[in-house]
Design a protein that fits this description.
Blueprint: H1 4-18, H2 26-44, H3 52-70, H4 76-97, H5 102-126, E1 130-131, E2 135-136, H6 149-168, H7 175-190, H8 195-209, H9 215-229, H10 232-238, H11 247-260, H12 271-274, H13 293-320, H14 328-335, H15 345-365
Antiparallel strand pairs: 1-2
Helix pairs in contact: 1-2, 1-15, 2-4, 3-4, 3-13, 4-15, 5-6, 5-7, 6-7, 6-8, 6-14, 6-15, 7-9, 8-9, 8-14, 11-13, 13-14, 13-15
Length: 377
Amino acid sequence: MLSANLATLFAALTFATFTLWCPITMQVYVAELVIILTAFVMVVIGRRPENHFLGGLSLIAALCVAQLICGATSVPLETGKGVIYWITLCGISYIATLSGSQDAVLNWLATLGSLIAGLALAQFFTSSGKIFWMWPGPEPYAVGPFLSRNNLASFSLLMMPIIIWKASAAVGTPAWVWWLAAVLSFASIAATGSRAGSALAVCELLVLGTRANRRSLLVSVPLLAVAIFGWELLAAKAFGPAPFPYRLEMAGSAFAMFLAAPLMGFGAGSFPLVYPGFASFDSGHFVNHAHNDYLEFAAGGGLLFLAVFAALAVYLSIKCMPIRWAIGVPAVLLHALVDYPLQRLGIMGWVIFVGALAVAADKRMASPAGFEPALPP
């Protein structure tokens, strides 16, 4: 069973994920408010975790506040939203670090990842581009609650190692159910055409394969996914005449923004409104993100913001890589080099959640009792 605090956090993040497609943003503020209030109550009752991870997130939130105080933002309203966003991530880290029920949390995460992967595939093949089979979306294909197939890929990259961990250490639920869920998770990345996501998913399986004896089952995951759900769209995108249209141009424009204000940036959250002044091309589409979160952080927050987040990403990767179910965190952080999963609470929130669980697991594994259950041979 999840504690009340964890259940509230899980529900708020699930709500944020399932409403990612909404054109309005009020639902994000609702999720943020619930998470912040939950963390505040925990602070009031005196629970204090030792968490360097939380300190890094707090410093980023403080840098956003400094932009507002110093007037170093071109769009104060968006930077104010950025302050709330990073405080919310602090709250997620705080609540998750105090978790003492790892097995229950991982079971819920694996279940959620499986359901969303299955839902995304069902919509991709049957909805004719309609979100939840009802509302027309901006893309030719609908993939669950995500407007972007790459955002779906980031979510599945995070959840697939947890699902495979559950399959390898299945208790209660038959192992074949989790292995089928792993096939769905991989297929939700490959069949929908995410190139970088597919490459990172294969890397995850290779890493997991070095740590378990069930390599034949791991090999069967991508083979079954491709055999059942296909990879035609992935091949067309990977080997087409322009495999990465406009990505280099957007990255160049974001870097030009950073060079124009290297110290404090143009303000957190300001990228889509400031970008047109630095655009080197016009595709006819609204460019809401740089498709490289690190460059976007540099353009919006400046060098110190980027340095703090990069240090945090390295710290998280070091903590997560030894833990089988947590290797999706560094995978998503790498995926952020070519996409924008870190700008969405419904994705970034889960990254922080799993990362905080891994930080807590790392500390508990250092104790004589240990923490991470051993995988069966």
